[in-house]
Amino acid sequence: LLFFLFFFFFFFQAEDGIRDVERSRGLGDVYKRQEYNMLREKYIPELIPTSLSNGRESLWEDVEKDIKRTRADVAFFIEPLDKRTRVDASLLYDLSQLRKHELSPAQQASYVMTHADVLGRILYIYGCRHPDVLYVQGMNELLAVIYYIFAKDCIGGYEEFVESDSFFTFENLMDELKDSFNEKMDKKSGGIRAKLKLIEELIERSRKDLWKVFQDQGINIDIFAIKWQMLLLSQDFTIPDVIRLWDSLLADAARFNFFSYVCLALLV
């Protein structure tokens, strides 16, 4: 986990070497955090985005739809951001299932922000900032793991930076994964087809018996391997197990070759 954090935050160093004068845990600099605040003001000024008139309504609808079902097995994501808030869990769940424009004025006035709301903001801002990628289903699962790490590992006094640090970490990860989410890049070296080909070649070379079964029964590895590759198994294991896997995966310079072996191990 230490390497995971280090790997994703080396780029947070300020260009001129100036950092916060306050004590820092090395997870970002004041410039990136200020930049994120400006992105929020630009793209999603409302704390509760009940309506968006910037031409990106469909983007918000896609994000909001998926956030409702992100890690439904983990209660953390519908817990209040403010730990001092005491609200009935069933009420929070009911509110989380409503689309923001469906909230009544009274519900808006008493709305309790949850961790899921933060995920939605981050994904929406990412889609606005990267119109060539936008938001694609599955990104929510990747972000959920990153955000969970920051929120759970937050040292006192740094809660306000969890959102911005999660955003730039997610953005950095997506720099490596975005081609897998772009259909136009499917056949390029970084596209999903190239990654699936690595797995196929590995199965054929190291487990000829398994490969024969796939061929004889007409089993296309796309049915499981596409999701594995795009989401780095973030949807297939508990969050602690995903963190352990990513710790090894991201420590490897040839991480996607390594990941092919992880996929093979799951099959055998």
Overview of this protein structure:
With 268 residues, this protein is mainly α. Helix content is 56%, strand content 0%. The protein is built from 13 helices and no strands. The protein has helices at residues 2-9, 30-43, 57-67, 89-96, 105-109, 115-129, 139-152, 162-177, 192-206, 208-216, 222-231, 239-249, 255-267. The longest helix has 16 residues, at 162-177. It is elongated and about 60 Å long.
Q: Work out the helicity level.
A: 55-70%
**Describe the biggest sheet?**
none
Number of strands: 0
Q: What distance lies between the first and last C-alpha atoms, to the nearest angstrom?
A: 27 Å
The radius of gyration is: 20 Å
Output the structural class: mainly alpha
Please state the average pLDDT score. Answer: 82
Number of DSSP helical runs? 13
Strand content: under 5%
Tell me the series of helices and strands, N- to C-terminal. HHHHHHHHHHHHH
Unreliable parts: 5-27
How would you sum up the global shape? elongated
